[in-house]
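A reminder from the course coordinator: this example appears on the midterm review sheet, so study it carefully.

Given structure:
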């Protein structure tokens, strides 16, 4: 008689001088875990039976974590990302210091904060002892970054394309726990294609080999942007966000605007955008809303890969530190918001390509989503997104009732235009909540806090905010 199939895990435990080594093999994969000598003493003291049970539980838990890690496309080190401020940050160690570093595909060189590292500003330092996978050491430019935003404190540094272009970098967004996979090894195009990704050639804009770059070009990844008959490259800047309005803005140069006007693309001026350049100079740029022509991210030949509704454009004014504004040919820039929408994106400097999700190549969809707010008479509330106001309202009402009961819809942000919803609560009594819907994040935040102070009394503080882009 044949032996029954073994559906359980095979676990081999080695006791050695340095500790305990656990090998686990299961139909879902294999993993290896090492426990140091101190942990060995703690476990052995529990007795043989308890020890065996404990090791099995720990091994299976570790195997489960290993299986999750296998959801990555290319082999490499997996690093958690903090995107709470809209752009990707990693918490890492470098040169004896720890802090939050921006993963910035729009920065051609890597930076450290002069105060954190004790290095004079505008000088370079060779640092080692990095905890970021594949980055053991490197040369960093020191800048004063005390006022640069970062999660839970100021910015400790920036990892730019001087490192990123010489690696495979895999972003996984649209998750409750976004992460990055980074590797110094090549990744097979067949592996990427089988994962449902399509390549976009970089055409001399992004490469691990500077000899393959266009003259006078730094390695900044691009995707092609198509509006009507106009096709032009757009830099992908993962470090760029617009905290002022939280809005889906595509940045273009003057040459791009003139090309659109010459092609007869219908658009109207829609206000101005305030920004700050790398020298701290405050700039004002024009905003243009396209009337009907959709926005498409495309291949070099103009074949659409991702399509949205008519975009809002911001014309970058000339400035001493803005290369894009000085280009004579049409050029654009997109920020971290687009990367988050794309879900999975792979930057491959070895083969001069980026890879994006094939499933996104569908018919044009609106730039905006609907938002609905449902509340009950106590402290309970739910904010839910939807493709339409009706869908968002139904989902918010259902989710609120399931958790709190006796809920009603009190505010809806339509999917037809940009809008933000903010909630503010009394600091002494969280049940005293007010909300506001406005066409900018700043206005929604200010109005919600003001309404709470006037209607609820006491000191109010912003408790939540969302925008529909």
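Designed residues:
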């Amino acid at each position: 008689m044949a032996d029954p199939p073994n559906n359980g895990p095979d676990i081999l435990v080695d006791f050695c001088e340095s500790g305990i080594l656990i090998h686990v093999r299961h139909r879902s994969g294999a993993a290896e875990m090492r426990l140091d000598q101190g942990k060995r003493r703690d476990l052995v003291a529990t007795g043989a039976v308890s020890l065996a049970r404990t090791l099995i539980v720990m091994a299976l838990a570790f195997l489960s974590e290993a299986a999750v890690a296998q959801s990555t496309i290319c082999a490499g080190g997996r690093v958690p990302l903090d995107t709470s401020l809209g752009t990707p940050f990693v918490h890492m160690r470098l040169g004896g210091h720890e802090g939050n570093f921006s993963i910035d595909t729009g920065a051609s060189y890597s930076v450290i904060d002069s105060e954190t590292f004790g290095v004079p500003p505008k000088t370079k330092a060779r640092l080692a002892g990095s905890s970021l996978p594949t980055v053991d050491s490197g040369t960093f430019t020191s800048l004063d970054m005390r006022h640069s935003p970062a999660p839970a404190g100021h910015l400790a540094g920036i990892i730019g394309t001087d490192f990123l272009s010489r690696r495979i970098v895999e972003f996984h967004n649209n998750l409750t726990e976004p992460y990055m996979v980074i590797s110094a090894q090549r990744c097979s195009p067949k592996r990427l294609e089988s994962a449902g990704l399509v390549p976009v050639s970089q055409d001399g804009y992004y490469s691990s080999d500077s000899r393959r770059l266009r003259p006078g070009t730094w390695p900044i990844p691009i995707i092609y942007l198509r509006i009507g008959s106009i096709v032009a490259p757009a830099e992908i800047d993962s470090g760029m966000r617009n905290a002022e309005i939280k809005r889906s803005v595509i940045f273009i140069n003057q040459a791009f605007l003139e090309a659109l006007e010459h092609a007869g693309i219908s658009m109207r001026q829609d206000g101005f955008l305030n920004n700050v350049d790398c020298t701290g100079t405050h700039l004002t740029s024009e905003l243009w809303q396209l009337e009907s022509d959709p926005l498409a991210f495309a291949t070099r030949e103009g074949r659409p890969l991702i399509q949205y509704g008519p975009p809002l454009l911001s014309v970058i004014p000339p400035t001493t530190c803005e290369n894009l504004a000085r280009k004579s040919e049409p050029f654009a820039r997109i920020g971290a918001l687009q990367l988050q929408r794309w879900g999975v994106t792979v930057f491959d400097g070895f083969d001069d390509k980026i890879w994006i999700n094939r499933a996104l190549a569908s018919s044009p969809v609106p730039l905006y989503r609907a938002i609905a707010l449902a509340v009950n008479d106590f402290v309970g509330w739910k904010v839910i997104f939807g493709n339409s106001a009706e869908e968002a309202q139904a989902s918010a009402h259902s989710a609120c009732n399931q958790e709190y009961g006796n809920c009603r819809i009190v505010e809806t942000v339509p999917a037809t235009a940009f809008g933000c919803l903010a909630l503010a609560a009394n600091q002494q009594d969280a049940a005293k909540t007010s909300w506001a819907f406005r066409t900018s994040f700043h206005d929604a935040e200010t109005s919600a806090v003001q309404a709470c102070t006037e209607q609820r009394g006491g000191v109010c503080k912003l408790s939540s905010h969302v925008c529909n882009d």
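The CA atoms of residues 213 and 370 lie 42 Å apart. The radius of gyration is 26 Å.
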